[in-house]
Design goal:
Blueprint (H helix, E strand, L loop, with lengths): L1 E5 L4 H12 L3 E6 L2 E2 L2 H7 L2 E4 L3 H11 L8 E4 L5 H10 L3 E7 L12 E6 L5 H13 L3 E4 L2 H28 L4 H4 L5 H16 L1 H10 L3 H20 L3 H13 L7
Parallel strand pairs: 1-2, 1-4, 4-5, 5-6, 7-8
Antiparallel strand pairs: 2-3, 6-7
Helix pairs in contact: 3-4, 6-8, 6-10
Amino acid sequence: MEVGIIGGKGDMGRWFGRFFENQGYSVHIADKDEGMSLEEMGKRCSVVLVSVPVSVTTEVIERIGPVMGKDALLMDITSLKVEPVDAMLRCAECDVIGTHPLFGPEVPSMDGYSFVLCPVRPGSGKWLAWLLRILKKNGARLVETSPEEHDRFMGIIQGLNHFNTMTFGLAMTALGTDIEALKPYMTPIFEEKIRIIKEVFSHNARMYSEILTRNPYLPVILESYEQTVKELKNLIDIRDAKTLEKQLQDAGNRFPEMFK
């Protein structure tokens, strides 16, 4: 069986290229003007994986979907699922499974990491069974859900989380913070925050920006975040430590035992 990877020169594209080769499949890549054309890939490959930036995923799906055989499988690994899955259903007659590997290209294997699956086309038993088999064999923790539920959860796990990181870093920039001057005073937690800010700002600014601006569920989440910030700032302004302490304790009691 032949597997095609669109975006095969990117970090995750290369990762999945190695992964499928290790499973014994022939892998072909398409990346901008390199590798196999999308037309040839769609006609030749039984499985095609779309691994491109969020902002161009739909455009790529619209090109590859119509040329794929009806008995093939089209997947994507985008961090958001509603938009790409809708595009795959609209543009391709083959089986469609939206996926989201919850790990980055720095990990040596998927063993122990979560892997989200959104099978959305009726009668997808053959390809879903195939994908489940190779993912389980390689130790992935499987999560099957709908594209909508995935994006709602990612609004918190990615959206709110990365928004907080961006706010933190941009506020430090606005304050003219000298990171070198802070070094002797840094706690381990603060050092980790600086490392994460550097990752978001320097290495993957496009990816994180697109994840936030394209998640349809994030604006409502950020309205709640904004209100919480206002309330917290007010307690600090009036120096009401007692009320703040109680709110923190009450919120802490609502977290599951695994976080205590």
